[in-house]
Every structure is written in structure tokens, then in C-alpha cells.
Description:
It is a single chain. The chain is mostly helical. The protein has one domain. It is built from 5 helices and no strands. The chain has helices at 3-25, 29-35, 38-64, 68-94, 103-121. α3 (38-64) packs antiparallel against α4 (68-94) and α4 (68-94) runs antiparallel to α5. It is elongated and about 65 Å long. Residues 125-131 have low confidence and may be disordered.
Amino acid sequence: MDGWGWVRVGAVLGFLAVAFGAFGAHGLKARLDGLGTAANFQTAVQYHMYHALALLALGPIAMFRPGTPVSVAGWSFLVGVMVFSGSLYLLSVTGLKWLGAVTPIGGVAMLVGWVALAVAASGSASGVGWTAYPTLKVERTEDRP
């Protein structure tokens, strides 16, 4: 996926995090309080938003440093949100505690994403990192005919 693709995915995830947070705080408040799972739901929303923001940051990096580490970071963040936050959302509204066993898989995916992002942002001599430094051409308006 290109950089703008990751920005779009991050924007959609950010929208959904705000929507789920509002729904949890208002529409599901009584249910979450009754099940004692409001803290789980809040954790899901927080990590959902953190990784939406990470994908927004990944977009520009992908534009200037495309490659495997960027792709691994993006897909890991996306899968991490779906599995980590998704399992906590479901656990919170259903009370099915066995879903808590799935949550760490999403957490590992998120960790892989952060490591991959660090590799993508590195300028190591091994070929991983910058493929080229961007060059900007600035043209002054008074130089135009």
C-alpha cells in the first residue's frame, strides 16, 4: 500500500476509535458498567486511537521510504488494532472472558509494527531505511515568464 493508502486507513481507524469511544461512553455505559468491563472497552479505544495515529504518521514515511519495513509496520498496526482492540470490544460487550486469550496476539502484532517502524525510520547501511532522500525543487514566482 502506498503512503496515502496508510493515511486513509489511519483516518478511518481514527474515526472509528472516536465513534466507538463515544458509543461506549454513552450508548453502552449501562451495559459496560453492569458487566464490569468499562475499563477493557476504554483500553481498546485508547490502543485503537494510538495505532490510528501511528498509521497517519506512517503515511509520509511510506512516501519517502517505501519498502518492506513500512509495509510490515502498516499491516501489523492494522492487524493489531483488529485483533487487540477487536477482541477487547467483543469481550466488553459480551462478557465472554475467553476472548481475553486472543488479545495478546493483537498486542504482539502491534509490537511488531513498532519495531518495523523503527527499522523503516533507520538509515542503516544494510540497505534497510532510506532508499533516497527527497529533493524539493522550489521555483520563485518572479522567475516565471
